[in-house]
Amino acid sequence: MSSPFSGSARSTPGGPNLPTPPTGWPIGSYGKYEEAQRAVDHLADNEFPVQEVTIVGVDLMLVERVTGRLTWARVLAQGAGSGAWLGLFVGLLLTIFSTQATWISPLLVGVVAGAVFGMVFAAISYAAMRGRRDFSSASQLVAGRYDVLAQPDHAEQGREMLARLAMRPAQ
Question: Which positions fall inside the General stress protein 17M-like domain (predicted)?
Fold first, then answer.
């Protein structure tokens, strides 16, 4: 699977990999990304040159879904948890380079110190917000619709193939 940020295979050889607008003619438009992906899968299954196809998200929106209310207890618990993970990593490093016969004490010291520092830093950052953002959330970039584009020399063939797909019942 390729990354949407890795650039195009059609970029100039040796040139910088800068963002460029998509090229091609529209051969399909879908309300959900899964539908556009299904269309490209159909093209690939039917020997269409999919390396000339682009899925373009149009009418982009940043959607922020609120996941919960922040309280002091939750902030401190999350800070302790993330600090403990970092402390575990530091404790493992201390264990590797330690000359002591026991490995448990550097590990415990790392986890406990990490949890304490995590709580302190979480408390400082939450207090600095002064109640302006008392919720946690997850952000996602979504499009209003997804257009499938193909290069002009194969666009008509792609439209015909996707029209046949649209006439079949969804699975």
Answer: 27-113
